[in-house]
Amino acid sequence: MTEEVILRVKGLQTYFHTDEGIVKAVDGVSFDLRRGETLGIVGESGSGKSVTNLSIINMIPSPPGRIAGGEVEFMGTDLLKIPVKDLRAIRGNKISMIFQDPMTSLNPYLRISTQMVETIVLHQDLDKKAAKDKAIDMLKLAGIPAPEKRIDQYPHQFSGGMRQRVMIAMALSCNPEILIADEPTSALDVTIQAQILDIIRGLTAQTGTSVILITHSLGVVAGMCDTICVMYAGRIVERGPTGELFEAPKHPYTQGLIKSVPRLDKASGERLFSIRGQPPNVIDLPDCCPFYPRCDKAMDLCKRKYPASKDLGNGHAVSCWLYTEAK
Ligand code: SF4
């Protein structure tokens, strides 16, 4: 990882206008991604992590969604301000995505060769023969056995884990600067999950690709990420280097998430901690700390005002009234 910031997200706000009110799915999210860094975005369902990443590549369905504010600066260009055609040239080429279900991205009617070669020819200056050779190499690197034969098969001829490997090969075939992986292993069993994460880690380390890994599981990010952002109700409530965040989490929500990760050094039969209550309804959310109904340390101030982010040094920051001074 270098110090060069490749992606700077500043004050991003993505709102959905519904009959019930305004859903502030992402509300003032800011973070930097450095070259070669793997950054994990963690949170429960509905915390805004996937909407954040769809907003980065400006893929929010509009209506009802709307990017209401903020900047997404990628290598000096604000992706929220450039024409759609320029953005298309960046998506899938300089910024690639893989999703939980590879079938949302793979066309079931086309052979893998057709889909991969088309992508490579579209984005790279290669003829079809060279593009196919490159596709076979990528499938091999992603751990697909006999890639020369399997490249001519259809997606349904692959298992779930193998399809995810194909997606990784496809996503990395254009040497992207950034790979966004949205819950890439949630639909897979635990052994295959570990293999897929290993492949992502190995391939991106080789190519120097920066990664944004979105997951609801702190267990997944622990062994994979340099930095972690914890999201709650559309905002980043804590971010920091992985080791520091696990050893000294500051936000009560992060502390709860860490306590709820199963650990091998815990006595068997011990009950796993779970955070009480449910995530809030983010429709017309008042400007308070949205975690207060679930927080054991909540104070009166928490119900009246949202705490500003407090910089704790070493890239560690938290938004909680236990650390932020009231003005
Ligand atoms: Fe708990 Fe208050 Fe901190 Fe929110 S601001 S996490 S309610 S102590």
Describe the structure.
By secondary structure, this protein is an alpha/beta fold. The protein is built from ten helices and twelve strands. The protein has an eight-stranded mixed beta sheet with strand order 6-7-8-3-9-10-12-11, sandwiched between helices. Strands 2-1-4-5 form a four-stranded antiparallel beta sheet. The model has no long low-confidence stretch (mean pLDDT 89). Iron/sulfur cluster is lined by residues 251-252, 289, 291-292, 295, 297-299, 302, 307, 320-322.
Largest sheet: 8 strands, mixed
The proportion of strand residues reads: 15-25%
Structural class, by secondary structure, is alpha/beta
Report the helical percentage.
25-40%
Shape: globular
**Count of DSSP helices?**
10
Q: Roughly how many Å apart are the termini? A: 37 Å
The bound ligands are: iron/sulfur cluster
Series of secondary-structure elements, N-terminal to C-terminal: EEEHEEHEHHHHEHEHEEHHEE
Uncertain stretches? none
* Sheet with most strands: strand arrangement: 6-7-8-3-9-10-12-11
Q: Report the C-alpha radius of gyration, rounded.
A: 21 Å
The average pLDDT is: 89
Number of strands: 12
Oligomer category? single chain
